[in-house]
Amino acid sequence: MATTAPPSETISATQEFLSNLRQLPRNLKDAWFRLGRVPGSEREESQATFHNLFLHLHSVRVHRRTLSPSLTLGLGLIATFSFVVLVITGLLLMIYYKPSTALAYPSMKDIHYVVATGRFIRNLHRWAAHIMVIAVFAHMARVFFTASYKRPREFNWLVGLGLLVLTLALSFTGYLLPYDQLAYWATTIGANIANSPRELTDALGITPYFDPGGLQKRLLLGAQTVGEDSLIRFYVLHVFLLPLLLVILLSVHFWRIRKDGGLARPEDPAGGWAEWGGKMQRVFEPLATKTYGLMAVVRGRRPPVNRGPEGTVMSWPHLFWAELAVFMLTIAITLVLSFYIDAPLKELANPAVPENPAKAPWYFLGLQELVSYSAFMGGLVIPSIAVIGLALIPFLDRRPGGEGVWFGTPGERTVAWQSLLFGLASTVGMLAFTVNFGWLRNWFPEIHQLWIIAINPGSILVVLFAGWSLWVLRRRNSVRLAAVALFTCFLVGFVVLTYFATVHRGPNWQFYWWPSQWPVH
Amino acid sequence: MPDANDVKPSRLAPPPVTRRSFLSLSALVSFLAAMGTALAGVLRLPKPTVEPGPVRRYKVGHPEQFPLGAETLFAEENFVVRRDAAGIYAIATTCTHLGCAVARTSEGFACPCHGSKFADNGRVLAGPAPRPLPWLEISRAADGQLVVYVDREVPPGTHFPV
Ligand code: FES
Fold it and tell me: Is the ipTM, as predicted for this complex, more than 0.85?
């Protein structure tokens, strides 16, 4: 430790001042880096972790299973780091972007063509957003298939779900800001989806008295059509409110990981031997009968007295190296993509002529396909069912077991495969049927709208998936397996619909085998 | 006489509520009620009282400009004006599904967004559109020109007699 020489009685204040001045660089460095060197002992390593505000989110020691890349695939970290990239690039874009209908598009053009590195920064923002959405979805699937939502982590699963919704909301609000054709029509469609409860209230004839759809749309747009008011609302949501909420929820998410005892992992075996990395290994010295009940102020298992911590390693440096590696990977992928592929900028928004086809961002295209059967059912009811269903998972499946292992309980892998095939077959079959034969309105032109809201390819898929899951529940007699069946089906359905709408829907939302066959106009 | 504290609380004999805890609870409840009301008032803010944006009411010209059997498309304003034996009428060209602007086709209108198709008179022929294209109110301004109200719907078949 560096210390200043104690001022003796004999030196004058001037001398003391000068000597302090001489030692300034060194003392400054000491103030910043309290240890002053790379930590050498485990004690210093733990101090390095918990004396630092940012590092102390981590525990001082981390279980070796948690570090294994095949458990987490680093997906949560990738999502977090792409959010960091989004915040930084977003701030830079805010310097030039002007949120008004007259100036938004020209300022985007400036960013694209005039501002030094502007196009690159915008590309980074765009690609990081895509990566974040993918990573968040994949992270959710990872947590589900490793059963990591089980007690005591139910609450964190809900927080994660909130983060998923916020991520999608951020993407959606960001979509309007360039104010080009793509933006204008995607937002028009989105706002009218918010308006779609009117489909039901109109069919029932109660819209003049009870109009939740109209209210939602007005709150979102601040007007009847997309314009100045909508742009400023979306801007405020996108650059302030939603990121703020996301940061808050993200902090809770991290905090809960610590409080719930780290990432979910299987119980360390009593004998100290466990199958690990393909062979039996001694993971700790067995000794314990007594546990540190009082010391364990976190939930989860109590550390047994005298049991060696061999299942864990020091966070500094092992965990931090791993995190740094994921960080570098995320940045590298984002940089490469942004270098080669530009974010699109279409013509200025034109309320008279929609883009044809007018497609939402890709992660909403599955929804757009459903919306093309019924706006209310596909745009609001089915997504709400999906979110509520996801939220209920940890509360309906409460039997412990399989935590922290991919497909950890017997039969999961089989059910997942079966559900994959079932989901694939039913979604593809439903799409093929609809494309070839049309739907109710083509057969009965005078049919009442209520029938179409209730019975359409989207709602039939939901019923099929639910039926399949119930069948698994009865047949396999396991709630977890039923949950696996349902989750897999929804995931497959989501992916297939997204793919289908991206590739096979062309102008007038007609079916084409490839975009190259679209008619030129 | 047994002390009140000796009685084990049960559902039949719940622990006594002290005056202090009752008062604090009431204070808390009234605080929450006040906050809730204030919050509800504040949250009223984002709902626009006056609908901003353009007034969607357009002067389209004198009746003579619309000859019998002809159709005039107002693309920017999103409606068509037609005249037949019974008079003049206007139909909106905004899709009733999710609000895309529909395009004119030989059999009527087609929406590029999710493939809704409408007949000439606005009736839904195919696709997800839940309602026919709305017929719009027409009136005559003081200078004799016709005015079309895009935000006011009239029952299909309503003509403006000229
Ligand atoms: S907006 Fe016209 S079909 Fe969807």
Answer: no
